[in-house]
Amino acid sequence: MQEAAVLIPLIREKGQFQASIAYVQGNFDQFLNFTTRLHSEEQRVLEAYRYDLRKTSYLAGRLSAKKALTELFPSESPDDFWIDTGVFQFPLVRNQRKPNIQISISHCDELGLSLAFPEAHPMGIDVEELNAHKEETLWTQLMEEERLLLKDMGMDHLSGFTAIWSMKEAMSKTIKTGMMLDFKTFEIEKICLEQGMLMSYFKYFAQYKALSFLGQKYAVSLVLPRKTETDLPLILNFFKSMEA
Length: 244
Hints:
- The protein is an alpha+beta fold and 244 residues long.
- It folds into two domains: 1-121, CATH 3.90.470.20; 123-244, CATH 3.90.470.20.
- Helix content is 32%, strand content 33%.
- The chain has seven helices and eleven strands.
- It has helices at 28-32, 40-48, 52-72, 135-140, 144-152, 158-174, 232-241, and strands spanning 2-12, 15-25, 82-85, 91-94, 101-108, 111-118, 124-129, 188-194, 197-202, 208-214, 218-225.
- The strands form three sheets. Strands 7-11-10-9-8 form a five-stranded antiparallel beta sheet, with helices on both faces. A four-stranded antiparallel beta sheet has the order 1-2-6-5, with helices on both faces. It has a two-stranded antiparallel ribbon with strand order 3-4.
- Strand 10 (208-214) and strand 11 form a beta hairpin.
- The protein is globular, with a radius of gyration of 17 Å.
């Protein structure tokens, strides 16, 4: 199993927070070698799944979450964290010593990607595979204004369509609704290129922005408060390492 994590600064006008991003890559058999990192309740959930495919995605998500959490809190053991689920199936961190920590989880095939962050600073993350078979479907989900934004940037193709989808998924995770809201609610109204990443803004969530990476295999989006500054080159290089 391949794994990596990085701490990122979250710089605000009146202070600073810290978050961590982590990923794991591997197959089902490789993930099984690391099940000791699971909390006993997570072990129970894993054993209840019947199919290896579902077990693989569960392990990818939970193992990446443990990696992100222990990067943020090195003194903690991975199995000290129980990643439970809320009533709308969003991930919920249970740890008595770290009561105000949040986690955002995304997975794609044999890749798990997670973001650990303080409750006081809401965020979300999403990774999507660039899949040519989904290009037409993704195009139909775009608002007309979003199609024009992509066309103006020369990105009216698969990677651009996938990037916007990942931005919206990450936003939905930030507010913990999933994609249950009207899709128009997550409309993107502005996109620009900044230090190798896309910087995007939402029409109806003006207090947030999305940072997106477009690679050869994946599109990744990280949503955070609009006025928060962070280390873009650090994040870009970390996302690039997922494709190495």
